[in-house]
Amino acid sequence: MTEANTVETKNRIVAWPIAKLAAASIAPAWPLDQSVAVNPWWPQRHASIERTFAEQAVLTGETGLMDRSYYRSLWQQQIKSEHLKQALKQLQLPFSENRLEEYLLRENPLNMRWKTLAMLMDETIPSPQGHSWEQEIIAQVSQFIALYHKYPERFEAEGQNGEHLYQSWLEVVTRDKGIKTLLGVDLLNDFRAMPTTMMQLFSELEQFWQPIWNDHDGAEAYMRGCLHQLSGWAGWQSWLDWQAGLKQQQLRIPHTLGLLAILLAWDRVLMRWLQQNHPQIASQLSQMLHHQATRINSLYEQAEQQLQPLWVWQRALELSVQMPWINQIKQATPAPEQSRPEVQAVFCIDVRSEPMRRALEAQGSEIETLGFAGFFGIPIAYQTHDGSITRPQLPGLMAPSLVAKQTRLQPDRWVRLTQLGWQSSLEKPYSNLGMIEASGLLKLVSLFKRAVLQQGSKNPVNKDARPNEKWELKRDEQPLSVTEKAELAAGIIKAMGIKARLANVVLLTGHGSQTCNNHTASSLDCGACGGQTGEVNVKVLASLLNDPAVRKQMPQFDVTVPNDTQFYAAMHNTTIDEILIFDAPKASWREKIERGCRQAQLTRSQQFDAPKAPSESEIKRFFKQRATNWAQMRPEWGLCNNAAVFIAPRALTRSLDFGGRAFLHEYHVSQDPQFTQLEKIMTAPLLVMNWINLQYYASVALPNKYGSGNKLLHNVVGGHIGVFEGNGGDLRIGLSQQSVHDGRKYRHQPLRLSTYIQAPKPAIEDIMARHDDVASLVNNGWLFLYHIDADQQVSRYQNGQWLAV
After folding, report:
1. Which residue positions in the chain have pLDDT lower than 70?
2. In this structure, are 242 and 197 located in the same domain?
3. Which residues participate in the annotated binding site?
4. GO molecular function: any one (predicted)?
5. Which range of residues forms the domain containing residue 183?
6. What's the structural domain count of the chain?
7. CA–CA distance from 747 to each of 520, 576, 642, 684, 704 (Å)?
């Protein structure tokens, strides 16, 4: 079969290209050890958020908006009449305030849910054993894929990528007698009759399902509905496709398509069984599926209309946060800019940096803080000294172009090999009782450290990175020349906006968390560093910027570093709110940093059940205990409550307190005449912030679909792939319940990101015109765009116009 430009020819549905479209509708889900926040609707960014949520409501039963009770609890508390009126004006919907209030008191859920064949069978013909058809499909496929990815060497199918998955599944399912035990029907012969190649499978499917699918839209809805049965595993398969894309590999049969083939094969087997054993029911269910397919666009439109009142309440909630901040911006007095501060602390734009930055700035005007992309402009993969592990240290949207590696001559490998190699050896089939018993003695040491000394364990890969060591940078396995390093370093300094006023001390401050016994620890580290800490990135950059040979050549790239400027790598521990500075001498400025950390700890302790009016030692001990307690479910709140990003000089916002809810990216339009830095910010960090914002949104608004459930019930799958909640079901993706809820209330409010930019409107519009992804996010309602002019007046971008606020 060849792919055609159109998917219908003379009313004939061609299944293959439709299946590819359905497979491409799934956002990737990163593994636990590289946890990157993902916008689960990224593949739908070119459609409006309202339409996307309507389609989701039909295909999954999940609206994407909070329950009415949530908005009801905020009415006349956080959401006021002025917010509701403004929301109605912006959305141009014909509702009155009274009608919207009455709407919240009614409970009439959407009744237009798309039903899969298995769901219809559960309603009309329960299995002889009483087990759910739908749940058996989920269990069988989910357990198989977990086995497939944990032990890939056990499967020797001929196909590649998605076809390899399908053929491996077919080999297993044709011998799986457990299906008959659970369902009470023998389907083995039906599975054996299925085609062994994907092309043959889809050729048979399009002939069989032609009358049921009706047309392209019906077929696509059917296939998307199938994938949503296992959206977690679909996300994992999509991640495999994403990685192939970053490596510029063209996959004839994507990994996600393999999962879709399995689910469609299951449906074909069930329908064949029905036709052979219950022909009347088979005919009835075929008619029901056909009826759904013919009405699919009508169902989408009905859902979109029914969700309109909820959209008003959601917009009112967002305005209740935006309007006070906009008023503060208008009234703020910009801080005077020091000609040359004593210390410049450059932080990741992560919202957890904002309270720490305020605390440091409170120590004196000679301390200046800035926000920059968390990977610090170094597009690297970190390679351990022996070359055994290579790990991306940049946003998931990007592929590394450089490899960073330390140059020491005598690597200390035993610690990492002990922690990685010993653990993996215990998972091998040849592990015997002697090894298990011997490991118990070593485990006693670990238990003592955790329970008595309250010491956690550091990532063994990170332990390979040593202090006071030189780094080498390679591109395509060739070392960078000094000139290439100088060009890279100069570009980063320009992007930070400090090339004309570098301080004596510049702290390059990455961030990472500190937790114990936490399989989701990566989700608390730096998403811009690929779900790792920023330690490697800041050490590489500090080494680069302190290199005399590099500095000597930087002036040819329009950057001159003063002789007395020294760059130090530093790490902000976001769990205990301390800053560790590597290789720094004793100096008075360090005391100010330490005082700022204590102030930040005191402020942040209010988020927890900390001692009242604690002493410095008490507050320090409190946070250390949270970080090292292996039973602690909520060591920190991560990026909870993120709501906005400011792309502007810090001087504009220095007097404002955003409560740890804002990403702050330094930007000076006066230093960017060609708007190249603005373009980089809007096309990279802004997209990362959108991903973070909508993952937190989804984990709260759709916890059953895009949240990973109760952390207490998690079982890690495949060592690092993800988690099951309990012993099976779909792979759970997104944030756990404990990451966004404190047991009494949500710690994150599901709001779309508000983006505030101080730059000329034409420059912003030009960047959107040249970058479809950015334009789609703005024009389709996935984030809000605000402009701040030189007089601090604010306007909002909507439908191609700037409207004064």
Report:
1. 1-11, 408-468
2. yes
3. 348, 350, 511, 526
4. zinc ion binding
5. 8-43+113-304
6. 3
7. 18, 18, 10, 27, 17
